[in-house]
Design brief:
This protein has one domain. It has 18 helices and no strands. The relative contact order is 0.12.
Length: about 400
């Protein structure tokens, strides 16, 4: 309770931001999440005659009680403030495994006031929930590796947070599978308690997702089908046109923006009569053709993807905006500190726990995988808790930064 009280001003800040910036208009992806929630209220997720699996069911399940009880949607938006505060609490307690109380509180506040954290917290979107799920997974994954006490509870909670993350942001389903495969392959060469625990977490998380994967198989006849949104994202990454940098555009954008209509209108019209899965396949096929024909342009688009992941810049057909500094300034600190941390971390690599290394691998796979799709800053933002834990660990345990009063805190 004492720890929570110290951090409570952040919850008040988040509530004020959500209430001050919310309105009743639905924008962007909000109608789609609400549509899926309404489907769940009717007893199904996707129409059976035309499978639509653009998003996972994680966030629509959060919205389901608000739909069933016909509650004002502002209440669902207010819930985002509690998700953000939950992320800060989990972040603080994860740091507390490695640092003194005062240090943990200071770094938790730095994380809590990280400007992009509150971006889209006033919308019916997955960003706030995703941050909470990553932070919860990180906390219990570290607890599992740090102590044998309550290991079963930590195993279940780490797996549960990770599974729900994959069901909320389906891209993490592939990251989850890659980590499980890595732990299985590496386990043949080196059997350690850390690898055994890691396999347990990722295997159990995947098991939790089996009902959803069984459902998508019943709709599509495809094994390990998490969704049908990847093809379009891959298509935009592969755009060979000189003024395009791999960022994503909707069907409406293709109709409304003259340059996009000229470059992509014919192809979008060609596939307009296909169902969702067939469109996804068509996008993937065209993307692979572009990869083979225009490798240098793909490399340029990939570089732009990395820029958008970290700094929300550059974008195609978009004038420069001062709002870019909202992401560029804080993320520049993260990038510079991360680069500077590599040398002391390498010198003291034997002091870095297995769980920290494994979380870094998890975050690295997520970042690298996102860079090969149409990438945006929000895809980096969700792994910032892990980046923050890494930097805190290096600063307090390797560089041995001291915060006045921290020494001797318990």
């Amino acid at each position: 309770m004492k720890r929570t009280a110290f951090l409570a001003p952040l919850l008040l800040l988040y509530l004020m931001i959500v209430l001050a910036t919310s309105d009743n208009e639905l924008r962007g992806d909000e109608p789609r999440y609400l549509w899926f929630a309404n489907n769940l209220a009717r007893g199904y997720y996707s129409p059976a005659d035309d499978a639509s699996l653009w998003n996972g069911p994680g966030y629509p399940l959060v919205l389901l009680p608000f739909v069933l009880l016909k509650l004002p949607l502002i209440l669902a938006k207010i819930l985002n403030a509690f998700f953000l505060f939950g992320a800060v609490l989990c972040f603080h307690r994860a740091i507390r495994l490695y640092a003194a109380e005062r240090q943990a509180t200071v770094f938790a506040y730095l994380f809590g006031v990280y400007p992009p954290l509150v971006r889209q917290s006033n919308a019916l979107l997955t960003e706030s929930l995703g941050l909470f799920l990553v932070s919860g997974f990180m906390l219990f994954f570290c607890r599992l590796h740090r102590s044998d006490s309550r290991s079963r509870v930590s195993l279940l909670l780490a797996s549960g947070f990770l599974a729900y993350l994959a069901l909320t942001k389906i891209f993490f389903g592939y990251v989850l599978a890659a980590m499980l495969l890595w732990s299985l392959v590496f386990g043949f060469f080196r059997r350690t308690p850390a690898l055994k625990k890691t396999r347990g977490v990722f295997a159990l998380a995947l098991a939790f997702c089996v009902p959803y994967l069984a459902y998508t198989y019943s709709l599509t006849g495809r094994l390990f089908c998490w969704g049908d949104s990847g093809g379009m994202s891959l298509y935009w990454l592969s755009s060979p046109h000189a003024n395009e940098l791999g960022d994503w555009y909707s069907d409406r954008d293709v109709r409304m923006i003259p340059e996009l209509a000229e470059n992509h209108g014919a192809f979008f019209e060609e596939i307009s009569k296909l169902n969702h899965l067939e469109r996804d396949d068509a996008f993937k096929k065209r993307a692979l053709e572009n990869f083979a024909r225009h490798p240098r342009k793909i490399a340029e688009n990939w570089s732009a993807n990395v820029g958008r992941l970290l700094f929300s810049y550059p974008f195609s057909y978009t004038p420069q905006k001062l709002s870019t500094y909202f992401y560029l300034v804080p993320n520049m600190f993260l990038v510079v500190l991360s680069v500077l941390s590599l040398y002391p971390a390498f010198r003291a690599r034997e002091r870095i726990g297995h769980e920290i290394r494994l979380l870094l691998l998890f975050a690295s796979l997520a970042f690298l995988g996102s860079s090969f799709l149409s990438a945006y800053e929000r895809q980096f933002r969700v792994i910032v808790p892990i980046v923050g834990l890494w930097l805190t660990f290096v600063l307090t345990r390797i560089v041995a930064l001291r915060i006045r009063g921290a020494q001797g805190d318990s």
